[in-house]
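Key idea: predict the complex, not the pieces.
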Amino acid sequence: MTDDSKFHHGDATDAAPILEMKNIEKHFGNIIALAGVSFDVRPGECHCLLGDNGAGKSTFIKTMSGVHKPTKGEILFEGQHMDFSSPRDAMEAGIATVFQDLAMIPLMSVTRNFFMGREPTIGSGPFKRMDVDRMNQITMDEMRQMGINLRAPDQAVGTLSGGERQTVAIARAVHFGAKILILDEPTSALGVRQTSNVLATVDKVRKQGIGVVFISHNVRHALAVGDRFTVLNRGKTLGTAKRGEISPEELQDMMAGGQEMAQLEGSLGGTV
Amino acid sequence: MAGNTAAVDERLKTESFGARMMKRPELGAFAGVILVTIFFLATADPAMFTLSGVINFMTPAAQLGILAIGAALLMIGGEFDLSIGSMVAFAGLFFAAATVTFGLPLTIAIPATFVFAAAVGSINGIIVIRSGLPSFIVTLAFLFILRGLSLVGLKLATGGSTQLRGVRDATEGDWLAPFFSGDAFGGLFLWLAEQGWVETFNNGTPKVPGIPVEILWFVIIAALATWVLLRTPAGNWIFAAGGDTNAATNSGVPVRRVKISLFMVTACCAAMVAIITVMDAGSTDARRGFQKEFEAIIAAVIGGCLLTGGYGSAIGAFFGAIIFGMVVIGLTYTDFDQDWFQVFLGGMLLIAVLFNNAIRKRVTGER
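Result:
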């Protein structure tokens, strides 16, 4: 490991996993999308799931977040056997997923987005209304904790940068009690600076004892923040490595499936 | 980041009051009301802005406005309803038949009309949601279906005529009638006349006998819709459902329920207008509400609603409808040909859409 990052890396290896996925298989008709994937997340760690396009990352996280039901295999959440039938089930158990579209509405204010579908109310009967002051206060506070000073809570999400939006989505998941936070390619569409902001946010979330699953195909971003790395290729895990046990080149090779990539990289002068 | 928690971002300029107002969706409509007022102050007979003149243009504005607020809510929720005009005729037929043909008292006829309208609205909604078709095409079908059913139903109820009379006789003396027809605060206006504070006829009765009930309903419905939109979870769900169905669903917003409820609310607004106008006229006919769907949608768009949903306001639709009323009635106070109204309508719509587009870009920070 030459390029160590400035982030804190907890030694989470001895804690019991919050979520364990054992030999998960998922078939769509005659297509085997996942052929026995095992994965676990511990509190306070960032576990990176790496894989090239088509490796099965999306199918796997959708299984984890309750969108798909596994064809075979077992999901244990805090030691209990779990059988999620909808994303809502998973959400209520404490598994929050921030998908690439972020589930944000650009025309609506940050506060309205933050509490979308889960608005706190005051009053009763026909006078039941949103507790707007509290909503604004919570939004400002939560965003500040993530290092973003909002202009005003009624600022439209559309005026935020991609990294800030990502942070709103993460802050929202954390606020609503996520124990596991799944981030689907959070840095894929971001610039350098915004990427480091998001990585810093991941670090803050991890320090709160939340288990982060970080999906990426960018080895550098993963190495900057990850504690453990699992590589997925053609629906199978190619193994899990701890931080410091593996070099960026090895990870890159594993993701791409070896040989060809080494040649390609050679011709590109190691810039990929 | 520690230490700077209370710091204000140095990249931010303080916004002036004007800049803040620029971001409100109803700004365009409000500015429109002012412009139209200035125009008529300059060109129209001063009688237009006396009390009776104002009541004169507020009455059609209110009738359209009740529809426009329903249309605005639905548009914010991301859907259209082109059948509201036909719905006015259809609900009018139902209401008139209930009172005249079946002789039901208003305590039964009015709730029954609302339930009936809501049921038809929910059919619209369920078809749109289930099929995933654009609401434009589904409700266009209902525009014709409901208009046709109103004609056929009227002929059945009257034995061949397309007008059903006798509503006034049937509802006279009913205790609910004053809430849906005639003028409110008659006593107040009589008292004002005695004090000499309002214009009177020679015999001492006030020229304006009271405030027509539809104006009161218009104000109440606008206030209620605004409150729901800005201050209740349901309002947040309406914006979310219209802004991005997927994002809203993933965040736990019951999008289907929200949209179907909005179709029902819009239909109930049409029923409200039907009940008021039928009781006022004492009869119903098949042309009632003709083309009102377009006027309502135009008023909503002038009020700041985006055609793509997720943005707009009920207050905007309120002002949009007032602009309408002012122009329709105002032109009769001027020397202009009344048919300029149509030109005005199209022009206003075009300006409003261009304006809204620009505003949306400002709000979302699109470049």
